[in-house]
Amino acid sequence: MSTITAPPEAAAADLGALKARQQAAWSSGDYAAIGSRLQIVGETLCEAVDLHSGERVLDVCAGNGNATLAAARRFARVVATDYVPALLERAAARAAADGIDVEEFRVADAEDLPFEDGSFDVVLSTFGVMFTADHDRAVRELLRVTRPGGRIGMANWTPEGFIGQLFRVLGRHVPPPPGARPPSLWGTREWLDRMFGAEARAMEARPVNFVFRYPSPEYWLEYFRTWYGPTLKAFATLDEAGRDALAGDILALIRSLNRAEDGTMVVPGEYLEIVIHKA
Fold first, then answer.
1. pLDDT tens digits along 66-88
2. Residue 9 within any structural domain of the chain
3. What is the pTM of this model?
4. Rounded distance, CA 59 to CA 71, Å?
5. What CATH number does the domain containing 272 carry?
6. How many domains is the chain built from?
7. What are the Cα distances from residue 143, in Å, to 4, 19, 78, 160, 238?
8. 125/42 Cα distance (integer angstroms)
9. What is the pLDDT of residues 4-62, one digit of tens each?
């Protein structure tokens, strides 16, 4: 039976203002409204890591559970973690609705995972761990909880893709805090080699497109500024003139990438699908 477990009361490290800002962003809106449309990414990632029935899997920054459900459908023993309890509740409801058994839903921080070393055969993250405040610490935790010979599978937006470009647009209007590193670093092979290479027996990384298909560019903009935490927070920070300018720049970006000619939106969003084989 699926359970949701809260973290222990003892505080870990002080994660600072950046972490607080990020957690507030992901807790706002309703990421499940966005994430449920990305389900195919979790399915293809489970195939990329060659997931086997019975393997113990950790989904880090699980959100509303795309990779969790994909792994559980393949009869893996899955633990889902996120630091936004409401998202885990949505993931648990999805699992129950589909009759899928998930071992546990646990509130936890990707930078301080509450598991013993080498606890999991496979560790997954789809568009999640890339948004942590402390990249180095998050990398160490992913590696620590993966058993020797296990696999780490990630889907991370690339800097050149639609979402990478979107975050650059947001950053021009609402500059990130000093010291914040771009999440899209996780979507570059050079950075992954530097961060994981010493602990990796092998690494595969290939660019993949998730295609954003929406009724129109304007519909996408309204949808994302309502439900997607980072976009919602960016618009909330600005005055009316600033919001209008940001909306115009986002629509210009979409139109520059849109391959539809019938008024709808069909925009490829490049991400990097990564499989790291731990030594």
1. 999 999 999 999 999 999 999 99
2. no
3. 0.92
4. 9
5. 3.40.50.150
6. 1
7. 24, 21, 17, 27, 39
8. 9
9. 444 443 333 344 677 777 777 777 778 889 999 999 999 999 999 999 999 999 999 99
